[in-house]
Amino acid sequence: MLKRTFIAAVAAFAVAGVANAAGAPNDAQIAHIAYTAGVIDVAAAKQALAKSKNPQVRDFAQEMVRDHTAVNNKALALVKKLHVTPQDNPTSQSLQAAAKQKQAELGKLSGHAFDVAYANNEIAFHKTVNSALASTLIPNAHNPELKSLLQTGLKLFQEHQQHAEQLAASLK
User: Fold this and answer.
1) What is the DSSP string of 57-77?
2) Spatial separation of the C-alpha atoms in residues 30 and 69, rounded to whole Å
3) Where are the alpha helices (DSSP H) in the chain?
4) Which CATH class is domain 2-170?
């Protein structure tokens, strides 16, 4: 059930990110999707900080809070500067729904089982977000500053994915 739910959310994210009324997300939708993904990962990291006693997991979670908060703050400053209102959309909504369910599922775990599930979820989440950034969000961003912020975020989030993979390997 856990894997099917996450896979369904990933599929919805990939499809909804490409398909909307105009055929591709606009900059206001892209900003909302990117911001939503950051908020989701900060919430997951805060859950890990509350539940995990493993120093490696806690260090990783602190990194996620720090980095995703910093990128989201830059995104908020940019949309304010550009006088753009981020636009909620089906992709953002499906991300939020899947994250809420995943947080509830992780909330039922503890100890090593939680740590492993959190690390694996971080791998899957970053793979999905990185793929969406590279294949849909960056190519469809029209504003050069938004595109640049997304490109910077992609590089950082690829590092997060590698770190999550290393964390998961260390927990086996």
Assistant:
1) HHHHHHHHHHHHHHHHHHHHH
2) 17
3) 2-18, 27-51, 55-82, 90-107, 111-132, 138-140, 144-170
4) mainly alpha
Query: What does the domain layout of the chain look like in residue ranges?
Result: 2-170
Amino acid sitting at position 38: G
Which pLDDT tens digits describe the chain residue by residue (172 residues)? Answer: 444 434 434 444 444 444 444 579 999 999 999 999 999 999 999 999 999 999 999 999 999 999 999 999 999 999 999 999 999 999 999 999 999 999 999 999 999 999 999 999 999 999 999 999 999 999 999 999 999 999 999 999 999 999 999 999 999 9
pTM higher than the cut 0.90: no
